[in-house]
Design brief:
48% of the residues lie in helices and 27% in strands. It has helices at 2-15, 35-48, 62-83, 87-111, 113-124; strands spanning 25-30, 50-56, 127-136, 142-151, 161-169, 174-179. The protein is globular, with a radius of gyration of 20 Å.
Amino acid sequence: MKEILCVLLLLISLTSFSQESQSPDRILTYGFPYDTQRKAIKFVGKKWGIELYTVADCVVSKKLIDSVETIHTKLWKKMDSIHGVDSEKRFRNEVIAEMKKIEEVNKIFERDRNIKKLLRKIERAKRQASPNLEDVSDDGNIYYWTVNSFEINYSSEFKWKPEFMVRINLAERKTEIIEAE
């Protein structure tokens, strides 16, 4: 078991921790951040040219934590040279602001009568709905959701079916439902 863990960490260190000029800048994560936080980091990172990359779930070693901290130190020094001093603090503030926007968009999604109606229709057909916030526009006002479904048959096979997409304009607080193709 120890050998497998060492090989896995070696592979991760060789592939994931590279921050060379040809590889994307990455914020490395471990643990289970809640979905709103993960989406906010992803959306803000997109604007900054930083990719969110998970290196471990909840079981981590001190060595892995130290490696992640070393990579992040290098990343924020690079970002300081691009975006100015205290880029990490500004990034975190933008993530917090984005989290608030995502929470508001979630409320709009959950309260929309037409979306609720379509979700009930999926449930009546003995299917489970799976809404997912996918993306945000460059100006940060339009959020895009995809709603998929799968049959509830309690087997290990899930047959995903795209049901519909939702575009939410946060500034106008309006939703638009787009049929899946």
